[in-house]
Specification:
This protein has three helices and six strands. It has helices at residues 12-23, 27-32, 50-64, and strands at residues 34-41, 47-49, 69-78, 81-91, 97-109, 112-122.
């Protein structure tokens, strides 16, 4: 993982690192990029605050989708806010294949992610 932010300014490279950590299923790598008091709102509306709750949420998700993968991502950063759009694919623990388009909206603080608000749209 690169350190792609300088002087507490988040960059597109930082968001690429965030997505790369997701694709490695690297929960600790994801948490390194989150503020300690981060609020994470998942695409299904689940909320977790702080590293312990977020770790539990991510672990549950990655257990449910052991082959989870994010691709075709685009990112932008504008000061203290940013967004990532991507396509998710995965097979849930019941064998159902899932493919959806989604985005994360971010608020940054002190060079870390302070808020993640995820939105998704299932593909037919």
């Amino acid at each position: 993982m690169s350190t792609s932010h300088v002087n507490d300014q988040v960059t597109v490279d930082f968001l690429e690192d965030f997505l790369d950590a997701w694709n490695r299923h690297d929960i600790e790598g994801i948490l390194q990029l989150l503020d300690g008091d981060c609020l994470y709102i998942s695409g299904d509306g689940a909320r977790a605050r702080g590293h312990d709750e977020i770790r539990e949420l991510l672990s549950s998700f990655l257990t449910r989708f052991p082959d989870a993968h994010w691709r075709d991502a685009t990112h932008f950063v504008a000061g203290e806010h940013g967004a990532s759009e991507w396509t998710f694919t995965g097979t849930d623990s019941g064998g159902n294949r899932v493919k959806l388009d989604a985005c994360d909206l971010f608020t940054f603080q002190n060079g870390r992610i302070a808020l993640v608000s995820a939105y998704r749209r299932n593909r037919p």
